[in-house]
Design a protein that fits this description.
- This protein is mainly α and 170 residues long.
- It has one domain: Winged helix-like DNA-binding domain superfamily/Winged helix DNA-binding domain (Arc Repressor Mutant, subunit A), CATH 1.10.10.10.
- It is built from seven helices and three strands, in the order H-H-E-H-H-E-E-H-H-H.
- It has helices spanning 18-44, 50-61, 67-74, 78-90, 112-136, 138-151, 154-164, and strands spanning 65-66, 94-98, 106-110.
- A three-stranded antiparallel β-sheet has the order 1-3-2.
- A hairpin with a 7-residue loop joins strand 2 (94-98) and strand 3 (106-110).
- Helix 1 (18-44) packs antiparallel against helix 5 and helix 2 crosses helix 5.
Length: 170
């Protein structure tokens, strides 16, 4: 039997204790709090929440996306998304146009004001991610991404991969 020092990288991770897993879960909760803290402050100024942020983020990533596609990505109810979109449209952050081929489709775009809000939200998160990535180093960054991707179910991973393959457009 090989000793831990000769075991392939990650092999010993297959035997994590419940206590080690709990610590990882708690770290994820607190990291998420940190990751969302700066955008939450920006959103609060407009009386928006994280649902607004997610909608703005994914409309930015896929300009012209349909409401149905956004529903699929966000995994929320139509009623919940419509409430968020009505607010964003009424406040002039998102425009909604009827589809050319299918008049039942609504295509979503950020307005200039919506793009500015998206930029400020993303800049805050990128700054936090950049600092964390620099502190952790390249191997940790790659490992972190692998862990996140491994936590996605197959459909989530497919949606994620289709977004990752798109250019950012900045």
């Amino acid at each position: 039997m090989a000793s831990d020092s000769t075991a392939p990288a990650g092999r010993s991770l297959l035997f994590l204790t419940d206590d080690q897993l709990r610590k990882g879960i708690e770290a994820m909760f607190f990291a998420y709090r940190g990751f969302t803290a700066d955008p939450d402050r920006i959103l609060a100024e407009k009386s928006y929440g994280r649902a607004h942020h997610r909608a703005i983020h994914f409309i930015h990533r896929s300009p012209g996306t349909t409401v149905n596609n956004l529903l699929s990505i966000l995994g929320v109810t139509k009623q919940s998304l419509n409430r968020v979109l009505r607010t964003l449209i009424a406040d002039g952050l998102v425009s909604s146009t009827v589809g050319d081929r299918d008049r039942r489709e609504r295509h979503l775009h950020l307005t200039a004001e919506g793009a500015a809000l998206e930029r400020s939200l993303s800049d805050a998160q990128r700054e936090r991610m950049r600092a964390a990535y620099r502190a952790a180093g390249p191997a940790a960054v790659a490992g972190f991404r692998e862990v996140l991707e491994a936590m996605m179910d197959a459909e989530m991973r497919r949606q994620y991969q289709s977004l990752v393959d798109q250019p950012d457009g900045r």
